[in-house]
Design a protein that fits this description.
32% of the residues lie in helices and 21% in strands. By secondary structure, the protein is of the alpha/beta class.
Length: 769
């Protein structure tokens, strides 16, 4: 029987997911000789055997990879035959052409969890148990290829038993890079608030006991520290809020099992699937009334963010505590997540009563991801642990390595290399020094993983965004400015591999437009290289600029004065009984004189304004708070809406909600319920959007309709727009890339690449818009 040879190159998420051991077993199954190794771009196989066996091997490689693997491509090349009877896993190759193929961190598998709970197993209650199917990956990686010497596990020398597992092809831990046991791996201890080891014989059990007694415990996880407390004890939750300086923003809750989650929330099959997925995000679900959670977990909020344990440490802690635990980011206010022991003791010393710590270093901080089911499919709101650094394949390969610097809020950055875009982990709001420094280090780390230096740097139009300033400080590159809402739409186009053009509906709070005003309620005809603004919302006057975004009564005042020509019935509205008359007078003077007053077209500002008016909220304590409460207030059974008008103004179509505002005031004065008013307001925005989109289709033709921007984290709005359009349009929503500013860097990257591909700019020509 004639022997042949094949060199098979596989690209994708194929390192750290048990891929080489799986290839080894496949080769044995097909009686094929040769070898497999990691390289800097993925995995390379040289296989020798009969042609039929080789073809069968290639078919299996394409069709049945390990669960955590994601194959982007399989290329096979004929090579001279060699008579090799054995198949080996060989040392990884370091090459100049490297690509990120490190997998995301993987939730603990059922086999490892069974060992952790088995009193007769040598890994009983061992918090760092893992195998090729689970455990830390991205957060411990220091370089590629993904091998133990390139991770923070390099400091731990495997004992004889672990080494035997690592070297035995039939073992589940064959080439599991973080493999360890109590005899040779990382150790865990419980320290007091001053960092002194309590010498507890079982640190996890002692931490669980402290939590049951109302203490706050800082827990070192995969990508950083959590601050944990008993989610059923209101005093503990209240103390955590005071210490963390987090007034009302919802807190994530971790529960031990899916059954425990069911007791707290009403969930669909899609939500159960998302909650138990290998990514283990925080999933926003409807909370059951009387579920037993402390009111302070999510004040005035009918939903709760639930997640399941994703490390043995979390599984053991939840089991020992015997109750749901708040698991919120280990930081103060909007500082970056603490990820080293020393940093945690310094920054969280005044927040936590105890510290559950270990000595496995975290190389890259990575917050928990957050997701929700919309239209029956998962939509990621915050893309971080479990998803990063998984690449997004793009239609047009990047002509040059591209860095997209993202937005000011909810920042992520993005690298575009060859046919893949790599979104970095969630960084947060770039409004303090520590977060900005974390942003810079994150970009440097990705450059090291990719072994590349960008020659194209994309950024937002806004000159005062710190991400823009960072971009413009990088010398010797082509700087490309990308309009905020164009980037939103392009991110969804890239995620779904749409060629364009599309009709883009970009709804958010604020983004600088090409005319120098604040946009945020935009209907665009979008190509990758350019866009046309087809329609927008009538602007709201922001008296005091950004102050109006926090003091939302100013937004309510602006829409009322606009709707009533300055003669709104403020005395009849409960909101304005809460605002000093002198402050109202000053705000009106500012708007009349257009002094420190910015016109803003953002749909998010309308949600804030009407929500403030109806819910009697003078302030927003965190971004989107009032809009979120307004959304959750809506009566799901009410399908009525208010009137609106649309017409051409300044050359484009503009939606005018003044009739709606007057009708809402009438309803408030007549005593109609806020649930009904909220439902009708949502229905109005959905119907108005449908009308604007249908008008756009009449003018520019039938194209896919893409919904993007932070407002489309609102499930009722997204589903309402899709329902209103019905069969008139093919509606596309985000899924694995956030619709908010956390996904905008992907859009910046593909727009910049399209401009470069079109030959519109060269490095010497500087900035283009």
């Amino acid at each position: 029987m004639a022997y042949e040879g094949r060199r098979i190159q596989i690209r994708g998420i194929v390192q750290g997911v048990g891929f080489r051991p799986w290839v080894f077993r496949l080769a044995a199954q097909h009686a094929i000789g040769g070898w497999v190794r990691n390289d800097a771009s993925g995995v390379t196989i040289e296989a020798f055997g009969p042609e039929a066996a080789l073809e069968a091997l290639i078919a299996d490689l394409r069709g049945t990879p390990p669960p955590a693997a994601q194959i982007q491509s399989v290329h096979s090349l004929r090579i001279p035959a060699r008579l090799l009877r054995t198949f080996e896993i060989v040392e990884s190759e370091i090459a100049a052409d490297r690509r990120v193929s490190i997998p995301a961190d993987l939730a603990t598998c059922a086999e490892c969890l069974a060992e952790v709970h088995d009193p007769d197993d040598r890994r009983h209650r061992y918090a760092f148990t893992n195998c090729t199917n689970c455990g830390p990956r991205f957060t411990i990686a220091r370089a590629v290829p993904y091998d133990r010497p390139h991770t923070t596990m390099a400091a731990f020398v495997m004992c004889d038993q672990c080494r035997a597992e690592y070297e035995t092809p039939s073992n589940r831990r064959f080439h599991a890079q973080p493999n360890a046991c109590p005899a040779c791996g990382p150790r865990l201890w419980l320290a007091d608030s001053g960092g002194i080891d309590t010498a507890a014989p079982d640190a996890i059990a002692a931490a669980a006991d402290a939590l049951r007694h109302g203490c706050i415990v800082a827990v070192k996880g995969l990508g950083g520290f959590h601050l944990a407390c008993d989610a059923s004890q209101e005093p503990a939750v209240a103390a955590l809020r005071v210490r963390k300086r987090r007034d009302e923003k919802p807190l994530a809750v971790m529960v031990a099992t899916l059954a425990d989650a069911e007791r707290l929330a009403d969930m669909t099959d899609a939500e159960r699937s998302l909650l138990t997925s290998i990514e283990r995000p925080v999933v926003i679900v409807p909370r059951r009334p009387g579920a037993g959670l402390a009111p302070g977990v999510a004040p005035r909020n009918s939903t709760v963010g639930l997640m399941l344990p994703y490390t043995p440490l979390h599984h053991l802690l939840l089991a020992d505590a015997g109750r749901p635990l708040v698991m919120t980011s280990g930081n103060l206010a909007e500082e970056p997540l603490a990820c080293t022991n020393d940093d945690a003791l310094t920054r969280l010393g005044g927040l936590a009563d105890f510290f559950l710590m270990h000595d496995r270093d975290i190389e890259t901080r990575c917050d928990d991801s957050v997701a929700r089911v919309i239209r029956g499919k998962p939509v990621v709101f915050r893309r971080s642990r479990g998803y990063v650094p998984r690449g997004v394949g793009v239609l047009e390969p990047f002509a040059q390595t591209t860095l997209a610097c993202g937005a000011m809020l909810k920042n992520t950055f993005c690298f575009g290399v060859d046919d893949t875009a790599y979104l970095g982990p969630h960084v947060g709001d770039l409004d303090n020094v520590e977060t900005y420094e974390s942003y810079e280090r994150g970009i440097e780390r990705f450059e090291r993983f990719l072994d590349t230096t960008p020659t194209v740097v994309a950024h937002d139009l806004h000159p005062d965004y710190l991400s823009t300033r960072y971009a413009l400080q990088r010398p010797g590159v082509l700087h490309i400015a990308v309009q905020h809402h164009h980037a939103h739409i392009a991110s969804a186009m890239a995620e779904h591999r749409l060629e364009g053009p599309v009709i883009g509906v970009a709804y958010d709070g604020t983004g600088l437009g090409t005319d120098g005003t604040a946009w945020g309620g935009e209907i665009l005809l979008a190509h990758y290289t350019h866009f046309e603004r087809l329609a927008t919302f009538r602007p709201i006057a922001l008296a005091g600029g950004d102050l109006a975004i926090r003091q939302v009564w100013r937004l309510a005042l602006a829409v009322l004065d606009d709707a009533y020509g300055g003669d709104a019935p403020l005395d009849a509205l409960a909101l304005f009984a809460e605002v000093p008359a002198a402050e109202v007078a000053v705000a009106r003077q500012m708007m009349a004189a257009q002094l420190n007053t910015v016109p803003a077209h953002g749909v998010g500002r309308y949600f804030d304004a009407i929500g403030a008016l109806a819910l009697v909220r003078t302030e927003s304590r965190f971004e989107g708070q009032v809009a979120l409460e307004w959304n959750l207030t809506a009566d799901p059974s009410d399908d009525e809406r208010y009137e609106f008008v649309a017409g051409r103004r300044h050359g484009i179509w503009e939606l005018d909600l003044r009739p709606s505002v007057r009708a809402i005031v009438d309803d408030l004065m007549a005593g109609r319920s806020t649930a009904a008013i909220s439902a009708r307001f949502h229905n109005t925005i959905a119907a108005a959007t449908g009308e604007l989109v249908r008008s756009a289709i009449d003018r520019v033709g039938r194209h896919p309709v893409v919904l993007s921007g932070g407002c489309f984290q609102n499930a009722r709005l997204a589903e309402g727009v899709a329902r209103d359009l019905g069969p008139a349009a093919s509606v596309v929503l985000h899924e694995s890339v956030p619709p908010g500013d956390g996904g905008i860097a992907l859009g910046q990257a593909v727009v910049a690449n399209a401009i470069v591909q079109a030959g519109r700019q060269r490095v010497s020509e500087g900035i283009c818009a």
